[in-house]
Amino acid sequence: MKFASVEQLAKIEIIVQFMALVRCLFEYFRLKSVRGGALTTAAVDPFIAGGLIAALGAWIAVVCYFLRWYKTVIGVAGGTVVLLFGYRFYFMR
């Protein structure tokens, strides 16, 4: 059984980060359909901050990927996911 190379893992991690970004951004549309006209900025603010965290992490990972720092990409992606989980459970109670 052949395992993925470091470069392939870096590609997978970047895809995971962009999926997290899309999930954060589409939460606005879910809330809009559930709450309708009663949707306030305060309800959407945490998801905007989560989207910014995911976007910044994805941007750093892509830059590191083009610099061929594949292990750094994996670390940045893992750190971004951990940060998003921490943000979710600490600030979005």
Structure notes:
The chain is mainly α and 93 residues long. The protein has one domain. It has helices at 6-35, 41-66, 70-91. The protein is elongated and about 50 Å long.
Which structural category do the helix and sheet elements fall into? Answer: mainly alpha
Fraction of residues in H or I helices: over 70%
Beta-strand percent range = under 5%
Instruction: Please compute the radius of gyration using only Cα atoms.
Output: 16 Å
Shape: elongated
What is the chain-wise order of helices and strands? HHH
Termini, distance in Å? 43 Å
Largest sheet: none
Q: How many independent structural domains?
A: 1
Short description:
This protein is mostly helical and 93 residues long. The protein has helices spanning 6-35, 41-66, 70-91.
Topology of helices and strands:
Elements: H1 6-35, H2 41-66, H3 70-91
Give me some keywords for this one:
93 residues; mainly alpha; elongated
